[in-house]
Structure formats: structure tokens, C-alpha cells
## 1
Amino acid sequence: MKWLCVIWTKKIGCHLWALSTMIPKKVKIFPYPYIIEHRMLSSYKSKNNIKDSYRLLKLQVGCSLDDVRNSFRNLAKQYHPDSGSITADSAMFMQIEAAYRTVLSDVAKKMKSSENEDEEETKFKSKAPQHRQYLSFEGVGFGTPSQRERQYKQFRVDRAAEQVMEYQKQKLESQYAMDAMIAKDIRQSKKIKITQAIDRLVEDLIQESMAKGDFDNLSGKGKPLQKFSYCPHIDPMTHNLNRILIDNGYQPEWILMQKEIRETIEELRRNIVASRNKLGEPMTPCRQKQWSQICEQLIEDIKKLNKRINDFNLIVPILNRQMVHFNADKEIARAQAAYEILMEKTKTTDVDTKENEQEKVKIFRLKCSFLKWINLMLK
């Protein structure tokens, strides 16, 4: 007989001290009861213990591994002794760690069991026996064998009709493509014939004019062509052609559009200044209404002009030649300022004319008085 006594004491964690207790000799004795801290030697855990572990981790049964890890991480930040938080507690952290390991093993077991069930189900499905009649008729139809045979015949008829329709469709498409290619070749041949006919006609006209002597009176007859200025950035032929176009008054589209935009904005500015001068002062309600209508019309015209500027910016070849949009409010304020300047000028001119008239009147009066005095002296 041997004696073994286990005494549980709290001294820097949980330790076990072995003493003797009475155990029968036939019973096999463990060399040392390896129970470390709060971890039990047996792997059995009761349902209540698992539920308490879920409750301690604030989780529900059926949660995922990520949820378990996230919950343990958040609770460790609160209760770990080295976290430095107010709620740090070593005993509570030990309970949380035990609950974490319990829940983790429970979730792993459930996942493994579900995987085993899926594998068994797939094996069962792959090995499921099939009746011989469902292996015939290409698996088409349902019901009795005679019904399935009739359904299979109808299926073959429909499939044949679809194949015929598909063949006819492909045949028509190929025929249409061939006709299109033939028509394209015909058009190209006609173009070639037309260009050749035009070339022959031009050549005939040139020869006829030379025979008549129409080219004898040309200023540069018998002299070499005048060399144009050389530009190293482009091809000489392109440069010479551009020079010829410029000399004959040709202008690119973006230059004409730029000129049109500038003329349009100048015309709009003149019209709004003239309308403001026509209304004059003071601005009565009726005149104010007319001025509002004029401003609305100007806003619409400016919108159209800005669209034109967008088109110009797309075709202009030089980036620094692009134009910005015009602002209708600024144009109205500009017209108002021009009107005020004009009114000031008219006032100054009126004052000057009045002063000149007064001076003329004074001079006239002096002349009259001088003549009267001379007449009196002669009498």
C-alpha cells in the first residue's frame, strides 16, 4: 500500500505537491500527475463548461475562428497584466485564456466533423446506383420508358430543326459577305476608272492649251521655280505647299474660327453698351425690366460662344493659342462701367460747353458796351 496526497496551494500560480495516499497495488500509478496551472490532463469538457467559455468570450455557439480570435484579442487588451489598462487582472486573464482554448478546440472539431460529412456525402453521390433506363435516350425526358422514348424523338426533331436553321443562317451570312466584297471591289474599280479619266482629261486640256499658246505669256516662262524659305522642322514639300496656300489666301479652320469668336464677342460688347446708353438714367421699373431681358439674352449668347470656344480648343494645334470661356456677369459689369465712363465724359463736355457759352456771352456784352461807348464819344 502506498499513500499519495494532493494538496492545492496558491503560491505564484498553481502548484501541486505530491504526498502519499492509499491506492491498491494492482492499480497502475502515474509517475507524476502532470497538471500545469489551469490545464487539466483529461481532454473531456462538459457542455456547461463549453457554454460558460462561450459566455466568457461574449460569443455565440456556431461562430467562426476569426470571431473567436478577435474576441480573445480584445479581452486580452483589457485584462492582460502587462496591458497597463485599469481593468488588468491576471486571474481573469487566465480564465479567458482557458475559455479561448476550449472554444477554439470546440470550433475546430465542429469544422472537421462538417468536412467529414461533406466528404461522405460526395462519396455517396458518386457511388449512387442509376437505373439502366435513365442511361438511355441521352438522359432526356421523364416518366415511363415509352413516354421518355416519345420525348426523346421530339427532342431529336427539334435539335435537327435548329441545326438546319443554323446552317441556313451561316450560308446567308457568307453569301452576304461575298456580295459585300464584290460590291466594294466594283466601287473601287469605278473610282480608279474615274480618277484615270479625270487625269486624261486634264492632260488633254493642258496639251490643247499649250498648242494654242495660252502658256506663252506667263511671267516665269523658261525660268527656274522660285525657292521658298527652308524650314528644318517639316518636310520641304509640305512647307512649299503650305506657302503656296498662304500666298493664295488660304487660312486654316482654327484661324477662321478664332477670328469669328473675336468678332462675335466684340459685337456683343458693342450691342450691350449701346442698349445701356439707350435706356439712360434714371432706371425706372420698366427700363429695369428691359435691362434684365437684355442681360438674359447676353447670357444665352455667351453660352453659345463658349461652346464655340470648346470646338476651337479641340482643333487648335498650339496649346498656348487656346481660349478661355467668357463670363456673362463680367461682360455686364464691363458694359455698366463703360456707360458710367461715357456719362462722366458727357457731363464734363456739357460743363465745358456751358463755360464756353458764358465766355462768349461776356465777350459779346463787352463788345456791345464798347461800341456804345464809342458812339457816345463820337456824338
## 2
Amino acid sequence: MDCQEEQLVNTICDLYEKISKLESLKPSEDVNILFSQLVSTCIPPNPNIDVTKMCDTVQETRQKLIKICGEAEGHLEHHFSSILTAFEDNPLHHLNIFPYYNNYIKLGKLEYDLLTQNLNGLVPRNVAFIGSGPLPLTSIVLASSHLKETVFHNFDIDPSANSLASLLVSSDPDISQRMFFHTVDIMNVTESLKSFDVVFLAALVGMNKEDKVRVIEHLQKHMAPGAVLMLRSAHGPRAFLYPIVEPCDLQGFEVLSIYHPTDDVINSVVISKKLPVVSNGSIVGGPSCLLMPCNCSKIHAIMNKKKKMMIEELEASREEQFS
């Protein structure tokens, strides 16, 4: 690292030390100030910073910081979901009180555009979101603005999160009829995963590499061939906030596109498609680990011609299900 990059990492580590000493991670003036400083420090794009190559001490700090960020994010969403559900009219009309709502609008549009591009205009009937939390903004944004006839099934292991989320959408005559909540560990969901055309995996489901890969392997085993898996990842210093998903983690999936935003949308997006399984149980193809680094302003499709033909044949056979 050069001096500027070293200074950035030192600033992040200093902020971790301050955050780790907080008595609580629930929203408060101190919590809000420190996490705002952390996000503003990490968000400027710097593709030269590769957190995976840093020393063990920094790696350990990063893992602890991701866990703390996940806990704080859960408290923040729970706090604002509780406020929203107290509105007497439709709570969804007041989503803009959530401080990161505009980020979710931008992320939803980005993910919808990627999805449309890679589904060749086909509209998914059934979508699953794993790790939806008490404020399922991705599902809400997609259902209300982009996928207006699609049914969304939200999975979360926390019953209190699902109770709040369900109450949040209950007053909306459209969304409440197309959005369902399931309190379950996704590792215990098997056959029903085959019914989803698209599966979203939240960034904080699987806080470390081992847990993330374990969930991906489970999804690969039970998703339908040709179904799309959308994942959130992180790039550069933003990887101090969220786990990284690499193409090599996606065994049994064809990685279609990777996008690294350069604006205030923090998460990178990885879109992949489950490969078909031949009669002897082996997988046709696999992820490419020989990816060029992503240009932060472009979408990189990485599908080779032979595998693309296989996927297109699968899409043709599934077209009636989407229409």
C-alpha cells in the first residue's frame, strides 16, 4: 500500500476501535456519528485496495467490523420499521424517512436493469429474498416500481423482523397481496427453492467466507436449473463494511455480470445463473476465476459462447413459466 492507502486503512481501524467501545449499537447520536464517518471513509471508490491481501491483523479487524456493521444495520432497520408501522395511513408512503432509502431506490433500479438484461426481457413470476430483515426495502422497491406483478417470498431467521416487515406492508392493498414472509433458516429450505425464478441473497447472510459459501452451495443444490441468483458483494475499501463474493465462490453457477458502483450505492452486484446438471449428476461448466478486474463504471458480462447456448436453450424451455 502507498501512504494514502495506508492512512485510509488506519482511519478505518481507528473507527473500529471507537465503535467497538460503544455500550450499544442501537441508533443514538454517538452511533450515528461514528457509522456516518465509517461509511464516508469507505465509500470513495479505490480499486487499488485489495482487503484480501492485507495483513492478518487488518483481516481480523475487517471481520469484526463487518459483524458489528451487520448488528448495527439490524438495529437501524428495526428502529425505523417500528416508526413506520406506527403511521395510521399506509407506512410505505413514508419510506423516505429512512436515511438510506435513496440508496435502495438506486440499488433496486441497478439490480432490475441487470436482471432484465440477463433474462432477455422475461419477467420473473416468483422471487425469493433471503435475509430480508425488518425493513425489506429491496423487495418493496422492486415490487412497487419494477416488478409490479411478481410475487415476493421473504426469508428471515428472526421472527421479530418478519413480524415488523409483515405489518409494514399490510396496509398496502397491492404489495400485501404479493409479499409473503417466512421465518426459517434458509439452510432448512429445500424443495420450495425450486419454485423461484430469481433468488436474492442479502449481503449479510453469511458474514464470513465459509458461511457465505455454505449458503451458496445449499442454493446451488436446491435451486432450479436456469434460475438466477443475485448477490451483494463489495469492492475496494467498501469491503470493510460487507463481505466479498468472488466468482470462484459460485460453483455450479455461471457468473453473468459483476457491477461495482462508484456512487453512494455501497454494494457491488453479482448476477449468476444455475447451470444445468447432466444425467450423471455432474455440473455443466462452472465459474470462471480468470476475470479481468471490473471497471467501476461498466457491467462486465463473462459468459462464453458454448455455455451461453446452453443457458438460452434452458430459457426457451422455461419461457412459458415467466410469461
## 3
Amino acid sequence: MAENNTTTTARPLKVIAGADAFGCPLKDTLVSYLRSLNIDVEDLGTSSYYSIGAEVGRRVSSSSATPAPTETRGLVSCGTGAGVAMFANKYPSVFAALCLTPDDALNSRSINNSNVLAVAGLSTSPDSAIEIVNTWLNTPFKSPCPASGSKPWPDDIQSFLDSSLTEMPKIGSQSGNDSDSSATCAICCLVKNRELNPIDLIPGGSMKILRESPTSAIVRFKAGSVEPAHHHTFGHDLVVLEGRKSVWNLTKRERYDLVVGDYLFTPAGDVHRVKYYEDTEFFIKWDGKWDLFFDEELEAAKTAIEKELENVSA
């Protein structure tokens, strides 16, 4: 296995990591390696390639929005590395690069200032991946690389690369032009400029009905909010538009950790409780009129969730 190297980043480094099932073993190896270098790693675990890629991308994008003493980068892995890279790259100021060789890593840092590394869990060995990670960590922007013939970039190319640092983050950001419907989520348009009404029975929640029969709504909950165990006479479909939440289906004894883009169907009568880790918004659809039947008190729900999360982290 490759020897530990010291990274050359100017600021302390934090790496946010995640993978799907095919990329998890390689991700775990690289997380352990990064921690052996005393690099702060936040391991988001395993989810679908599109969910985990998007969540890592979202967090790296958010961290780059304002100057910070710590540089935040991302590490993602799936079977090929391509899927997680595509979804990480959906966020502004994220430059995810799939690297299959150290030369790929060198080029991606030198030319693209890559801040998210994607690796292929099914085709890259642990030793090769560590070599790729070392190269990616220790290559400054505009370094000599295979694409430059391993020589310093000419002045005109260096000028172009410098300009790219300010021009690239603008791509994918909101233009502020409401007439540009191609850049706007259709579901979000339904609720835009509409005030959401508080959900009186659950603190921190608000909802706006969009249409009736079948009924659909946009629901928002503030970070830290909890929905006590409850059930409905209808089944409902939901898609997370923003934020992060966990749903415990107590009837089925299953837990679902949901992030942006995730979908969940809860059958009629299934008792479930919910915890919101961030300000969260989701689209929900059901047949019939709205009803809600509580199966526990709010404080009991908070205690049960805290106990389970403590057991998980122990």
C-alpha cells in the first residue's frame, strides 16, 4: 500500500465522502487512508449513486459559497465513478472529475481545479486509488501535468486558467431571470411567491395545497423539527426538493434517510415518525382529503429518535 503523504493544500482540508453499494468498499479504504493523514473526513455512508453524488455535491457547493478557513472537497465512488460525478456536478462551483489514473487526477487539478474526486469501485484497486488520491491532494491548480507536456503552462494558457476560476462558478447558478423557464423546476414554480400555511398540529411545519383530487402540496419543515408517530387513511408519495430528513416506518420497522431527489411511498395506515436535520422542503401527493392521526406525543417522539441516533453513533 502507498505510503502516507503530506498534502500541499494552503488551508486545512475537510473531505466529504460518500458512495453507492458498488463503490462503498473503495470509499471505505480511501476514508481510512485520508484519516491516517489527519485529514478531517465526513463520511455520509452509502446510498443510491444519484442521491449520494448530489448530497456530496450540494455540501461542497454550499461550503464554497462563502470564504472559510477550511477548504472543503468531496470524494465519491460508485461502480464506474461516472454516475456519482454527474450528480455531484449539478451544483454550482462543484468540479467533479472521474479519475481512473494518477495522470487523470493530475490533469483534473491542474486544468479544472477539481474539488470533487470520483473513483470507480469496480475497476480501481485500493493501491491505485490511493495513488490517485495522493496525486489529487498534492497537485496545485495550474501545475505542470501530462496535458502540458509536464512543463509549465504558457502565459496565455495560465491567463485563461485564471479567468476560468471566476467564470466556471457562474455556470449552473441562478440567473435571476424569471422568464428563463428552462432553468426553473416545474414543481417549484407551482409554489413560487405563495405563502405556506403553518401546520398547527406540528411545530416547525408549513404546507401549501397545490391542487385537489388527487391532492398535492409543498411542505416545509424547519431544521430540528420532529413529526411524532402518526398515520393517514391514504397512502402518499413524496419527493425531497431541499434538505435532509429521516422517516421511521414503525409498522414495517424500517428507516429511510432521504436527501434531495429521493422518493418515498408510505402506504395507508402505516405508522411513521420523521426527523428533519436541515430546513427541508418536499412535494407530496395523495388521494382524498387530508387527515392526520397521532400515535404518540411529540416529546415521546423526540426521546425515541434521540435514543436511536445515539445508538447508531455509539
## 4
Amino acid sequence: MVTPLKQPIVFELEGFYVPPGYGAFLFVLALCNYMVMLFANGVVLCIIVIDHNLHRPMFVMVCNLVVCDLLGGTTVLPRFMVHFLTGQKKIAYISAIAQAFCVHTYGFAMQTILGVMAYDRYIAVCEPLRYHAIMTSARLHSCCALAWATAVICIVVLFAFHVNTPLCGNTIKHVYCSNRAILNLACSPTPLNNIYGLSLAWSVNTSIFLVIALSYLRILHATVKQGRDARRKAFLTCAPHLVVYVLYQIGTLVLIVIQRFPSLSQNIKRFFSILFIVIPPVINPIIYGLVSKELRASIIKHFYKCRSPQKSGGA
């Protein structure tokens, strides 16, 4: 009979296999990824906060997306850097639960926020004259709060199953902690958690997909009747949101599909399994910064404004 572990429990992540001499190189790659993520999201967040012309529903939602991206990237990238540089794979029980909680919250909040953004784009394109009457400040903040609350409450319930669950192993067979990776170490099967987790993932993915699909079908139907300029404006308004959603779904799809190829090396599988949490936080702010005309113009304006005092000082 296997004896359950007693607190304090310290897990050991299997992590990546790092060939001798490559740790510093991988550390630099992870550091660059993290710095680009912090810089790009920081610029978008600061510009939206500073520029009062951007204090509009769409950009407030972009700020929520930025916070979600920062949560996801900061949850895993610093620990990857430590692993690559020092080879440290151990993680305390509380830290493991915290990392797993944040990873799952990032995943669900990303979808609920994108669902709210789809609703906002639908109102903006299909009800332009009533947009400000519908998307009031109170409704905007209620939608954003609902997106976060839904994600957090769902994940709190998911992790409630960890209470009083005895663990008989301490090796997590992944590069980061997750609900399933931790409960795989349980001394006995956890069917309730499995059923709830699968039901939650299916219901959230399906409901958000339906919200976004119906919103864009209505937008498409509304713009078909309008002129070319109106269609172009609607496309530019919706393109960033749709690209961000598609990229995230591709990342999660790769995470599922890659497990169906047992012949692939563990390093390749683990690399593809982290794409959904390390790539979107870097690309999302760049997409919004490049495609959104108002945000791009504001970034350029503040960039030149910051350079002007330096030139004056040098003169």
C-alpha cells in the first residue's frame, strides 16, 4: 500500500531536457520572450491609460486582455528561466497550486474576455447609433467583471477538489503545474474532478465559440447591405479581435493534437504544449498596436513626444 505524502510537499517538475551547454541559450530565449511581452503589453496598457481619447469600451476591454496576457506569461516564463539557468525543477505545494490556478484562470479568462469583446463589436457595427446608449460605463464594467468572475469562480470550484485529496507521488510529468498534472499524483482516482473539468472546458469553449460566431454572422449580415467603405471599417474594427481568438484556438488545438503523436520526443510535445501561454501574450499587443488605427497613432504620437524633450535637452 502506497503511503500518502505529508506536508510540506515539494514537487519536482520533469521539465525540458536541456542538453549540456544549452541552458544559458534557452534562458536568453525565454528572457527575450518575457521582456518583449512585458514591453509590448506595457506600452499598450500605458498608452490607453494616458490617452483620454482611448477611454472607450473597446480599449478598456483591450486593457483587460493585456492583464490576462501578463498573468499567463508571468505565471510560467520566470520559472522556465530559472529551470534553464540553474536546472532547478523543484516547486513547493502552495507554489504549484498557485501556478496551476493562474494558468487555468488565464485560459478561461482569455475566452470570456474575447466573448465580451465580440458582443461589443456586434453592438458597435450593428447598432452604431445606439452604441453609447447600450454600452454604457456601468454595462462595460459589468461585462468585464462578469468575464473575470466567471473564469475565477469556475477555477475555484475546479481546485476545490484538491482539498483533502491525498497525494502519493511528487513528480509532475510536465513543464508547468496544472490541475490534471497534480491530481495524476493522487492516491486514488478522481472521477468528479475529471467530469467537472471536461464539462467545464467543453461548455466554456462551446458557449464562447457560439457567442463569437453568432456575433460575426450578424456583423456579416449587417455589412453586406452597406457600402464598401462601411465593410472596410467593420473589417478593421473586428479583425484584431478575430485574429487574437483564432491564434488562441490554434494554440489550444495544437496542445490537444500533439498528444496524439506518441512517436514525437517529449521535448517537442512540451514545447508545443506551452505555445498557447507564451506566444499569444507577445503577439496580441502587437496585433492591436498595428491594426488599430487610433492606438497606433497614439503610440507614435507619444513616442515622438518622448523624443522631443531629449532633442531639446541635447540642443
